[in-house]
Amino acid sequence: MVAILGGCAGVQQPAPVSEPLPSPVPAPAPIESAAVTSLMDGAHADIAAGRLAHASASLERALRIEPRNPRLWQELARVRLKQGDYAQAESVAARSNSWAGEDYRLRAENWRLIAQAREARGDAAGARAALEAAERQR
Fold it and tell me: Is the pLDDT of residue 37 over 60?
């Protein structure tokens, strides 16, 4: 047995491959570009002033820059809701949810927007279902 161990002593073993440890903190949300931030700020000012068409145009421009930004989709859903375009508000909020990942707060707010749109269209059962979905996001 000594001969076997002695023969192994000269063979170098490869170093173990270390795998990266999982991060204990979730990755931060992506930082928006300066152009998108400016467009979103302008949209908020337009919403406050009641210029919903201008706000919508600014958000759509921002979405051409960052089409996977769930916050932009959510803001556009809010504008569509204020414009009375309830079907579009619901659709856009659902699109926001498709990009929201694990942002449960954003997802829950999208479900509340969907509930408002459904309620405005007279779909009480659909609105209740959307509110239940919002509660499940916690």
Answer: yes
Phi, psi of 63 (to 5 degrees): -70, -25
pTM of this prediction exceeds 0.85? no
Sign for the pseudo-dihedral over CA of 63, 38, 47, 115: positive
Measured in degrees and rounded to the nearest 5, phi and psi for residue 36 equal -65, -40
Max intra-chain CA distance, the chain? 88
Q: Take residue 20 and report the two structure tokens written for it.
A: 């990266």
Say if residues 115 and 127 touch (Cβ distance below 8 Å).
yes
Of 53, 57, 41, 118, nearest to 87 by C-alpha is 118
